[in-house]
Each structure stands twice: as C-alpha cells, then as structure tokens.
Amino acid sequence: MKGVIFVELVKMAEQAFGEDTVDMVIEKADLENGGAFTTVGNYPCSELVKMVVAFSNHSGLSAEALQIQFGHWMMDFFAEHYPEFFVDRTSAFSLLEAVDREIHVEVKKLYPDAELPRFETERHGENRMEMVYSSPRPLDAFCQGLIEACLKRFGEEGEIQRVAHPGNPNVMTFDIKLHA
Ligand code: HEM
Q1: Thinking of the domain 68-178, which architecture would CATH place it in?
Q2: Torsion angle of alpha carbons 105, 2, 142, 13, nearest 10°?
Q3: Fewest C-beta atoms under 10 Å: which of 8, 103, 112, 162?
Q4: What's the predicted TM-score (pTM) here?
Q5: What Å distances lie between residue 12 and 55, 80, 96, 106, 131, CA to CA?
Q6: Is the pLDDT of residue 56 over 90?
Q7: Cα–Cα distance between 104 and 163 in angstroms, integer?
Q8: How far is the CA of 116 from the centre of ligand 1 (A)?
Q9: Is any ligand 1 atom within 6 A of the Cβ of residue 2?
Q10: Atom 21 of ligand 1, residue of closest alpha carbon
Q11: Domain spans of the chain?
C-alpha cells in the first residue's frame, strides 16, 4: 500500500491527538519500521490496520469510527491533489461510478505498484445505487468514509447500508439511498 496513505493517517492522528501523543502511540504499536513512513515507500496494509488499532486503543474511539473519519480525510486529500478527477462530475453517483472505470485506472498508470480495490456499480432509479467493493484488504469502513465524503462533497444526503456476502469476506455491498 502506498506510503502516502500512511503519511496521511499519521497527519490526521496528529491533528486529532497531538504530535507527542502520536509519537508515543506509534512507538508502542510495534510497527515493522518503527512507524517511519515516507510518501515514496510502500508498506503492508496490516501496518495501517495496526496503527488504526493503536489509535483506537489510545483514544477509546472505535477502529471503525477512525477508518470512516480517515475516509473523509482522504477524500479531501484526493480532491486537493487530484482535482482533474473531480472536474465535470455533477453528482456523487457519477464520481463513484468513475472510481473503478477511470480514476483508479489512472492511479494505476501513475503508480503501477498501487494495490487497488475493484468496484461494480448498479443504479436502481435516480436515488439508489449499489456499489460492490471487492478487496482482500479489510478496509470496508475506510471505503464507507470515502463514499460518505463523496455525498457530502456534492451536498447530497442519504443512507449507506453495508451488506456482507457470507462466505466471501473480500466483498461488501454498499447500498446507497439518497434522500429525494
Ligand atoms: C477521487 C480520487 C481518488 C484517487 C486519486 C484515489 C487513489 C487511491 C490510491 C492512491 C489508493 C492507494 C493504493 C495503494 O495504496 O496501493 C487508493 C486506495 C483505495 N481507494 Fe481510491 N482514489 C480515489 C477515489 C476513491 C473513491 C471515491 C473511493 C470510494 C469508493 C475509493 C476507494 C478506495 C479504497 C477503498 C482504497 C483502499 C484499497 C483497498 O480497499 O483495496 N477511492 N485510492
């Protein structure tokens, strides 16, 4: 997983808990490289999960809530650093449909070593879309935060329900219903 994701998680935690606390939590978290992440490096996703658990233990916030918050944070980061993926998008659904078809395709060209999830989307009328997330990485809640942040970006409101696929832990359906 790209170093930028790790660097941004540390930044988010620093803003939330303060730099000294983050240094201490990372030191105790027993990370492979002592938590020295750089944007040009690549690190195992398990290290990201370890950090989330460490911040969760420290703060009392659930790992789930922290991953969702991090999804919001990364959406803001992507919008700032990759504005070309956002121009011409007029709705959250159109942006979400573009992730697998265009955005992550471009990301893969830019960073051939990126480990990206797959998405299939299906619209059910104007206000409902199912987005099926497939990834061997356990980042469902992170994905939820990214989807929530997409809605927010377009001033849309709605409910996102997660539907698991028994027998296939790598797949999760996000059933997104917009308030009409
Ligand atoms: C809009 C601009 C976007 C950019 C530039 C972008 C780029 C990236 C990058 C660089 C990674 C890390 C890959 C790696 O570490 O190897 C990533 C991962 C990921 N992206 Fe995107 N992304 C964007 C939008 C989205 C959106 C809207 C969603 C939500 C549906 C999404 C879902 C994910 C997820 C869930 C991962 C984690 C990897 C996994 O679950 O397997 N991305 N993306």
Answers
A1: Alpha-Beta Complex (3.90)
A2: -150
A3: 112
A4: 0.96
A5: 11, 15, 24, 26, 27
A6: yes
A7: 23
A8: 6
A9: yes
A10: 104
A11: 3-61, 68-178
